Amino acid sequence: MAEPVESRPDETWLERIRAMGPEIDAAASAHETDNELDPQVVRMMDEAGVFAMMAPREVGGAEAHPSDLIDVIAELSYWDGSAGWYAHAVMTGGAVAGAYLGEGAMPAIFPDGRYAHVAGQAAPTGKAVREGDGYRISGRYSFGSGSPHAQFLVGGYLLQEGGKPVMNGAGQPVMLIGIAPRETVTFMGNWDVMGLRGTGSYDYVVNEQVLHEDFVHNTSAPVQRRGGTLYQMGFMALPCISHGAFAIGATRRVLDEWKAFAANRRRPDGSTMSDTATYHRDIAMAEADARAAEAYLRSTFDKIFDAAGTGAVPDHLRLDGRLATSHAYVVAMRIAQTAYAACTTTVLRNGHPLQRAFRDICAGNAHFLTAEQSIIDAGAVIAEVDGAALVF
């Protein structure tokens, strides 16, 4: 666990992470077979304060502004998509734990202002039953990103009573997020995938146990116990920032690798791809698309943060929050596919950074937060379809 963020030297977050980039890049080849990040990379990020960036200041975190979060996650993802994805999974765990859990959980998760790492999956595939001053919980989860070094595992649980789901005031099942100690969790060791291989996003089982209520967050009736504006933007705001920033950073890497290939690969007549008009057209449009996607993401979350600081976030900004995130992936996929095809057999070979970024973008795009259904849901809201809504 790293020292509290407040004790860091006076430097920008981006400067701090950029200095680590070449070492992160050099280590990326190992997780193609190991399926986890190099422990030294995890240690570097921890010591730099990355994992505690989203945690409230009261518990030793940075409670960073969205622009700093985008800077850091995008930069990490530029050097290695798995590093960026792993980092944002652990960062969001710290936000939930620090802002919403009870006082009794703080000494365990943030001992002496140091973050013990929370990761996992909040999809409500588990069940919880009230028991005394806690909940009897159990569940099985997939895609536990960031779990290899986490000391606590997130799980989503549907609250039950008498074998039936408990409903909230809106007629929806009550969903709890519980954060269980690592020693009560069984990992399935089954992370064998095409992209984001280094995230160690294993399936896992939270074994039946009674978890004290201080380690449980009721998403149906959220109570913010610590922190400020960062946690008032909407429950999905931080995951949207995280996922969108990953797409921005990975896309930048694709563009740089594509430009390097175009400048150096000789054609039979001695010219390079960068001498051709078709390349000029394609790279210009790709750059414009990438810059537009980044600008949309950044401006949207600046506006959401400002709105949250002065009152409620309006619906049109909530829509933009989801749409900007999904749009970043639409652009990332389009650019990655174009660049991959343009670089021919060079990127076919394993180990090429463009190929790795391409696979990581494809894997990230499969996430429910940014997949095609998210675009469809946003479109239904824009088209003013009766009953259309977005979760944010």
List the helices and strands and how they pair.
Layout: H1 13-27, H2 31-34, H3 39-47, H4 66-79, H5 81-100, H6 106-109, E1 118-131, E2 134-144, E3 152-161, E4 164-165, E5 175-181, E6 185-187, E7 202-212, E8 216-218, H7 237-264, H8 277-310, H9 315-342, H10 353-365, H11 372-382
Give an account of the 3D structure:
- The model has no long low-confidence stretch (mean pLDDT 94).
- The longest helix has 34 residues, at 277-310.
- This protein folds into three domains: 5-113, Acyl-CoA dehydrogenase/oxidase, N-terminal domain (Butyryl-Coa Dehydrogenase, subunit A, domain 1); 118-218, Butyryl-CoA Dehydrogenase, subunit A, domain 2 (Beta Barrel); 232-382, Butyryl-CoA Dehydrogenase, subunit A, domain 3 (Up-down Bundle).
- The two termini are 31 Å apart.
- Helix 4 runs antiparallel to helix 5 and helix 5 runs antiparallel to helix 7.
- The protein has eleven helices and eight strands.
- The protein is of the alpha+beta class and 392 residues long.
- The radius of gyration is 21 Å and the shape is globular.
- Strands 1, 2, 3, 4, 5, 6, 7 and 8 form an eight-stranded mixed sheet that branches.
- One of its GO terms (cellular component) is cytoplasm.
- InterPro entries: Acyl-CoA_dehydrogenase (IPR050741), Acyl-CoA_DH_C (IPR013107), Acyl-CoA_Oxase/DH_mid-dom_sf (IPR046373), AcylCo_DH-like_C (IPR036250), AcylCoA_DH/ox_N (IPR013786), AcylCoA_DH/ox_N_sf (IPR037069), AcylCoA_DH/oxidase_NM_dom_sf (IPR009100).
- GO terms for molecular function: acyl-CoA dehydrogenase activity; flavin adenine dinucleotide binding.
- Keywords: Oxidoreductase.
